[in-house]
Design goal:
CATH architecture: Roll
Helix content: 10-25%
Oligomer: single chain
Radius of gyration: 12 Å
Distance between the termini: 32 Å
Structural class: alpha+beta
Strand content: 25-35%
Order of helices and strands: EEHHEEEEE
Strand order of the largest sheet: 1-7-6-3-4
CATH topology: Structural Genomics Hypothetical 15.5 Kd Protein In mrcA-pckA Intergenic Region, Chain A
Shape: globular
Amino acid sequence: MKDRGQPFTLRGEYITLDALLKATGLVGSGGEAKQHITAGQVRVNDEVEVRRGRKLRAGDQVHFGATVVVVCGAATQ
């Protein structure tokens, strides 16, 4: 069975790509996130993404190195 990736639950409607990389601990700073993103080392939904402000919503998948993060919708209460 294929691993679906590391889940990340949104707190709002979206999170930006650079903020997601920081929140998941994949990078240590916003500057580091920017470097990896602008160098084309991050893919969103299997396409290279170079915009650090890309809005990620539930269902999006982010690939960085060997890590896959799956963005999940906020839990409703």
